[in-house]
Design brief:
459 residues, Immunoglobulin-like, alpha/beta, globular, Aminopeptidase, 10 helices, eight-stranded mixed β-sheet, 2 domains, four-stranded mixed β-sheet
């Protein structure tokens, strides 16, 4: 069984410890102990809370992006205000570190899914990092708006319990729990508007991140994460969740393409590394769940709020339930031939949603607590040898790592299978660089790892 599976499935794995000489390796086994603080946070995720949030969001009848903003009981305006108020309750317990805003943006008619001039708003809760030297930003999102079969129907009943009150509930529950703790970097919890009308809120936020030069190292959108039943195939599965990721960045330059082709790293882009991180951290802390890596940007005929971030060059993934029920998604609420259609709260599996929330929380907490990733990682290619020499530099910002993990896998393996703990910034391994793929992570004394960085050829 690969070591990653042992580490994450059984909470015990094998690490390889580098001893005195930083350019040679001698291996010994050691127990991987999960961080008790993260385990405590994971244990606080409540299926009951998640259900209460979904039922409240569904009670607004519709959250269509073009629905009313004048009512306090119906429509997208009432839903936005309620989410903002809940975020502010969490902020009261966060010692001033959680700030809550509605971030507005104006859209003109586009001849497609926007038929009039409209102001939309993303509801954001920003948990400011405690380390002024750590400028990393993490974003987790769900989309607040809902829809019926007709995407332009802004008045009909569209409860949107799973699509995507489940994602918003996940984000809110993460904010409730994580805002009570301190993290060195900044985490943004956001309920975006306009997803069903064309990923509009995510596009606005991604453009803002780019314009303001955020050091955004991870973005995950949770869209349709609370259903465990597959119509047509009649599968029931509350033990698997999918993470979609692009392999080749949409923002790849010709120079980046040349480098990628030279080292065959088409399966090792930043989004792919983030997806692998979700799998390892999620399975390490959450029982009875397997994170399935889907090596595609998204499903056929569908789109998600991670896409604008990917297009802007940021590492972004989509988290989605394993099996979807299309009798509930994008359906008018009705009974037809004895079958109930519509995205209603009674069709959500709240225990499954709890697990998916915990996976997100584990990944974000572990990453936020970790040092920044190593810089200028390289693999020596100056001579023919059956050994591999790797070199890198410590991150310039944030806390100093106590060590580094060198990751290894065979070229045919989808996930990293070995970790070698290194105390310096160079390692020579008795494995051929021609036969294996390598990456480097920063790690602190508590075992929190950064995102993996792929070394590039250097002479």
């Amino acid at each position: 069984m690969p070591m990653i599976r042992l580490l994450t499935g059984c909470l015990i794995g094998f690490f390889f410890l580098l001893v005195a000489n930083p350019v040679s390796v001698r291996a010994q086994s050691m127990t991987a102990t999960p961080d008790p603080a993260i385990r405590e946070m994971v244990g606080e995720v409540s299926a009951k809370n998640l259900e209460a949030i979904i039922r409240k969001l569904s009670s607004f009848e519709t959250r269509h992006s073009l629905s009313t903003t004048k009512s306090d009981k119906k429509g997208i305006g009432a839903a936005r205000n309620w989410v903002e108020d809940e975020f502010k309750k969490y902020a009261a317990a966060a010692n001033g570190r959680l700030t809550v805003t509605q971030d507005p943006y104006i859209l003109e008619p586009d001849g497609k899914r926007i038929n009039r001039r409209v102001e939309m708003r993303n509801v954001m809760a920003t948990l400011k990092g405690t380390d002024p030297a750590d400028d990393r930003v993490l974003i987790v999102s769900g989309h607040l708006d809902s829809r019926n079969s007709d995407v332009m129907d802004s008045t009909g009943k569209a409860p949107g319990a799973n699509d995507d009150a489940s994602g918003v509930a996940l984000v809110m529950e993460m904010a409730r729990i994580m805002s009570r703790r301190a993290f060195p970097c900044t985490i943004i919890f956001v309920a975006v508007q306009g997803e069903e009308q064309g990923l509009l809120g995510a596009r606005h936020l991604a453009q803002r991140a780019r314009n303001e030069k955020w050091n955004l190292i991870a973005m995950a959108t949770n869209d349709i994460v609370g259903n465990s039943y597959s119509n047509e195939t009649n599968l029931y599965d509350n033990t698997h969740v999918r993470v979609f990721s692009e392999g080749i960045s949409a923002a790849e330059t010709p120079e980046m393409a040349t480098l990628r082709k030279s080292i065959s790293s088409e399966n090792d882009g930043a989004a792919r590394q983030l997806a692998r991180y979700f799998k390892e951290a999620g399975e390490r802390y959450v029982d009875q769940v397997t994170v399935e890596l889907i090596y595609r940007p998204d499903r056929f005929l569908r789109g998600g709020d991670h896409t604008p971030f990917s297009q802007a060059g940021f590492p972004a993934v989509r988290v989605t339930e394993m099996n979807e029920n299309y009798t509930q998604q994008h359906q008018n609420v009705r009974v037809e031939n004895g079958m109930q259609y519509g995205d209603l709260p009674e069709f959500v599996d709240y225990e499954y949603l709890r697990k998916n929330t915990a996976v997100n929380l584990a990944a974000f907490a572990n990453l936020a607590l970790a040092p920044a990733a190593p810089e200028n990682a390289g693999v020596l290619t100056s001579e023919l040898t059956n050994q591999t020499t790797l070199r890198w530099q410590a991150p310039k910002k944030g806390k100093k790592p106590t060590g580094y993990y060198v990751l290894m896998r065979e070229t045919t393996s989808p996930t990293w299978t070995r970790k070698l703990l290194v105390t310096g910034t160079e390692a020579t391994l008795p494995y051929s660089k021609d036969n294996y793929l390598f990456a480097i992570q920063s790690v602190d004394a508590a075992g929190h790892e950064s995102i993996a960085v792929i070394p590039v050829p250097v002479k």
